[in-house]
Amino acid sequence: MATPTLPAALADATRDESSLRRFLHGLPGVDQVGVEQRAAGLATRSIKKAAKLWAIDTAISMVDLTTLEGADTHGKVRALAAKARRPDPDRPDTPPVAAVCVYPDLAATAVDALGGSGIGVASVATAFPSGRSSRAVKLADVELAVTSGATEVDMVIDRGAFLEGRYGQVFEEIREIKAACGDAHLKVILETGELATYDNVRRAAWLALLAGGDFVKTSTGKVSPAATLPVTHVLLQAVRDWYTATGELRGVKPAGGIRTTKDAVRYLVAVHEVAGPEWLTPALFRFGASSLLNDLLLQRRTQLDGHYSGPDYVTQD
Amino acid sequence: MTMWEYAPAPESRDIANLKAAYRPFVNGEFVDGGGEPLKTLNPATEEVLAEVGTANASDVDAAVKAARRAYERTWSALPGSERAKYLFRIARLIQERARELAVLETLDNGKPVKESRDADIPTAAAHFFYHAGWADKLSYAGLGPDPRPLGVAGQVIPWNFPLLMLAWKIAPALATGNTVVLKPAETTPLTALVFAEICQQADLPPGVVNILPGAGDVGAELVRHPGVDKVAFTGSTEVGKQIQRAVAGTPKRLTLELGGKAANVVFDDAPLDQAVDGIVNGIFFNQGHVCCAGSRLLAQESVVDELLAKLRYRVSTLRLGDPLDKNTDIGAINSAEQLGKIRELVESGDNEGAHRWTSPCPVPERGFFFAPTVFSGVQQSMRIAREEIFGPVLSVLTFRTPEEAVAKANNTPYGLSAGVWTEKGSRILWMANRLRAGVVWANTFNRFDPAAPFGGYRESGFGREGGRTGLEAYLDA
Amino acid sequence: MPDRMPVAKTYKLYVGGAFPRSESGRSYPVSDAKGNFLANAAHASRKDVRDAVVAARKAFPGWSGTTAYNRGQVLYRVAEVLEGRHEQFAAEVAAAEGVSARKAQSLVDAAVDRWVWYAGWTDKIATVLGAANPVAGPYFSFTVPEPSGVAAVLAPQRSSLLGLVSVLAPVLAAGCTAVVVSSTDRPLPAITLSEVLATSDVPAGVVNVLTGRAAELGPWLASHGDVDALDPAGADARERPELARQAADTVKRVLRVPEDEPDWTRPPDIGRLRHYLEAKTVWHPMGA
């Protein structure tokens, strides 16, 4: 199961189940108190004026505008697509979002509605959100997404297998999904709320990176806690370490629970200072969110108008 | 890709309510001191902030006498529960005026407002809050059923944490029933004089707290005054030795909190990213103006390269500049004199063959600034491994085994603090057992809490501040 | 006829941070020391006990998990807010206990100071009651006090405020949460104290106050499987042995209290604090 493009040490790590285990358990630990203090410390950065406006526009361009409900309809997805193209109809200079994120059976609708916009269509897959099904079903899920035209696939890892220590199985599954994605970008959802410890989050992140995931993503949004700043620090550190080891830039996507501009700016500060400024692009950092976008739009108006706006001035979609 | 530049986010200096002139505080009143007034500078701009009246020998005498009267007539006669309420009130007043004090501290000292806001001022309030609770519980301190105060305490504090060091000194002294005469540092007298105002607002009886600004001569006068029963000093080891000599042969009680050259020991199984944060916090907190700073990094040879690579990247993200900017991580060096000392020692590091790496951060042209610096390839014999630099300069040494780490860490006349980084609990305790230091931090660094005693071994001084142990310094038991 | 008709307060229970009536719908008249009607107090039932214990248990992880420093700040805040309502309490205590206005003032003073005294204890308990154990071997061993959990407190019957504060504050200082049954005949200061607690940063559910009859509610608390400690101070001395027997089924910590209600103005010791604490001993090897 070795990957020929990896540096020798990393290729070695993926040789077999026990190599993988040795490698993952040989990663430096993450001290909970320390990482939480660092995250809280960086969260006190005060971002104002032009820096804030830049952050708001950048954050808008990083949003994966998401609807993942049992009650989703074609109409709902079309509405979201319209919002994605023109988040603030009164302000045509507002950047479009990065992608629209939907269930696979609605991917075709999203593709159709977003045609020619350059906005990505992300589809969740692999028996999202639990991931509890057969490999065949998961692959079929991915195939549906990809044949529908999704440009990005957000898979979930098998947390049960991970917590049982069957890292090889998790690794193989990600590899197969990656192969099934073809040209579509693969985001690997770790569901950090179920992994429980930062040590596990770091191991799962490395596992996903070794297996070829283009992004590591915190959460499905269906489990609490979803994205947190310290968990995102661990992921940002992992992609930075991956870059140091391989020269490759991989992305990070926190998802779930990020609702305010203030939160989003804190995440961007973490991206800037933990991973590095190279990661401040939608190609390498995304927000999985739905209500965040409207708050970004409100704050954008506040910055430009010089007074506070209200929720009736942005569209509810 | 556009670079993201954080816009300046400065605190307004108006918040500090800076006055043109400040005066000594004796017997509950601000008085004209007999000494030559001093001008206190903003080290970030080299501008004069205010003129401060200083004390002469007769002011010292008046302050000690006022403290004696207050001790005999009011303070020592008050029930502990009433003393407690004064201290609680002072704690609350500090909390209420926290922002003003933070900005003033930053102006006078040069430390980032982030630190004065999040560390210095809240911890100062916490010290008063904590010691307030002791005032009526001294019989539970394990020092006998009815431990008695000593009398008048003469206290001399340094410029690195002006208000916090004041709190470390005054809170336990008052809680235990003593009265005080305190001399703040020559370069950072302002928050101490606002504290005097707080004493007035708290209706503290006159003479219980007296504040005498001035230079070393005022401190020397205070320490030698026969009316002083207890001397407490925080500062350099050199001055500490002079004070110990001056007090020798007198009935005065003495506690000293002096210099340090702490080892921060990183094993190869450490949580590396948090160790990097801890190393940064250990040496760059408060520009390295910290007696317990982790100024010697002892890294296990098997991990030193990876650690240094991560450390350099992390240090390069530190923001140096205007201390009033809320995003500044590294502020100004407190004085031209201190900057000169740092430069001289850094030169010695170059001359002795250590490898210097300096953060590429921009350095302002005005003001006293020094970019974060990391020396690798440092040997035990070099001055930068032995002498306290008291600046943002880290010396990196290596070791192979735990025994060697202990031997190198302890190979100094100092013994204030030490750090240990490893995920192996038993090794933490084994190291803690062998390290000759008054405080050992494991997988963290530079943690302070009024409930935790702080102080040094050997030439780092004696006596402890904080916790139950810290009460001993002010009680006859 | 007065020029203006005063608005009278409805006295209710204090459970989970809210002020509900008794689920039973019952109330009972409360009179002053001279027998004049003051108000109707809620007459709590066993189901109110049940709800109060649920609220106290829910609040326990948060309250016991907060730092000792923060708990001290919260208790000191209670003293501040209580001091601010000094006159109201003095009037209620004078009415309830039939003491002079001056005596009532000094009882309220003492109650404020008692909160201050316990506020100072939160971050000192561990240093006074904990220990580093010099065990004979390569181990580091230490013992720390930890709060027991939910405490049921039958408040004193006579001292309506100072007695109540003297039995409640140590529960909170120790980090436990409380279900308090107030004095039966003098319950009004307890409900007014609840208003103080509700507005002074004490999290909802940390203190729950039931007005009613200790004789009726005591057994439900003593036998309750989710209550960890019991202070039977307010129970009739003849009923205490039976409460203690009921408490034995779940091995509750039952405070030993003097037969007659003590003089609460005397300075306390740390007996009540200790009662609500467990000692936990930790061993860890030392080796390179």
Salient structural properties:
heterotrimer, A: 317 residues, alpha/beta, TIM Barrel, eight-stranded parallel β-sheet, 14 helices, C: 288 residues, Aldehyde Dehydrogenase, Chain A, domain 1, five-stranded parallel β-sheet, three-stranded antiparallel β-sheet, 10 strands, Ald_DH_CS_GLU (chain B), oxidoreductase activity, acting on the aldehyde or oxo group of donors, NAD or NADP as acceptor (chain B), Aldehyde_DH_dom (chain B), oxidoreductase (chain B)
Topology of helices and strands:
The complex is a heterotrimer of chains A (317), B (477) and C (288).
Chain A: H1 8-13, H2 17-26, H3 32-42, H4 49-61, E1 63-66, H5 74-85, E2 99-102, H6 107-114, E3 120-124, H7 135-147, E4 152-156, H8 159-163, H9 167-181, E5 185-189, H10 192-195, H11 198-210, E6 215-217, H12 229-246, E7 251-253, H13 261-275, E8 287-289, H14 292-305
Parallel strand pairs in A: 1-2, 1-8, 2-3, 3-4, 4-5, 5-6, 6-7
Helix pairs in contact in A: 3-12, 4-13, 4-14, 5-6, 7-9, 11-12, 12-13
Chain B: E1 21-22, E2 25-26, E3 29-30, E4 38-42, E5 47-52, H1 57-75, H2 80-96, H3 98-109, H4 113-134, E6 148-149, E7 152-156, H5 162-175, E8 179-183, H6 190-201, E9 209-211, H7 216-224, E10 230-234, H8 237-247, E11 253-257, E12 263-266, H9 272-284, E13 296-300, H10 304-316, H11 336-351, E14 355-358, E15 373-376, H12 383-386, E16 393-399, H13 402-410, E17 417-421, H14 425-434, E18 439-442, E19 461-462, H15 467-471, E20 475-476
Parallel strand pairs in B: 1-5, 7-8, 7-10, 8-9, 10-11, 12-13, 12-17, 13-16, 15-16, 17-18
Antiparallel strand pairs in B: 2-3, 4-5, 6-20, 11-19, 14-15
Helix pairs in contact in B: 2-4, 3-4, 4-5, 9-10
Chain C: E1 27-31, E2 37-42, H1 46-65, H2 68-84, H3 86-97, H4 101-119, H5 125-129, E3 131-133, E4 139-147, E5 150-154, H6 162-174, E6 177-181, H7 188-198, E7 207-210, H8 214-223, E8 229-231, H9 240-248, E9 253-254, H10 271-275, E10 277-285
Parallel strand pairs in C: 5-6, 5-8, 6-7, 8-9
Antiparallel strand pairs in C: 1-2, 3-4, 4-10
Helix pairs in contact in C: 2-4, 3-4, 3-7, 4-6, 8-9
Produce a short descriptive summary:
The complex is a heterotrimer of chains A (317), B (477) and C (288). With 317 residues, chain A is of the alpha/beta class.
